[in-house]
Predict the structure.
Amino acid sequence: MSDLTDLYQQVILDHNRRPRNRGKLPTANRVAHGDNPTCGDQCSVYIRLEGDRIAEIGFDGSGCAISQASASLMTTQLKGKTAAEAQALFDNFHHIVTTGEAPEEISDVAAFAGVHSFPARIKCATLGWHAALNALKSEPTDASTE
């Protein structure tokens, strides 16, 4: 199990050091901002929808390694998905980070299962996801973890 834990830690560190889809998306037609006042994480999510699918997605912001790695991972998971599929992926991710119950198959999403041991970090891990869901819903208010 130690090897698996090490692998998962490497996934999080890799997404933090080399974030995927980081940056403002000039062609975005949906944008939302998220704020975690508890630890100061900030995350803006930029989405370009084509029909009902996420054609492009990016994020920008600052915060702890968990929030930045999670936002990076989120962009890789949501690209090409519909809003309903994005909600289902969030529900799965939320279940993983709040219970520690990861799917049996090894996946990048499962890397965040250890977050459940640190309840304050759950807000960090879900911030970008909340912002993305708000963007998809065209919510006028910022996503907040409070």
The mean pLDDT is 91.
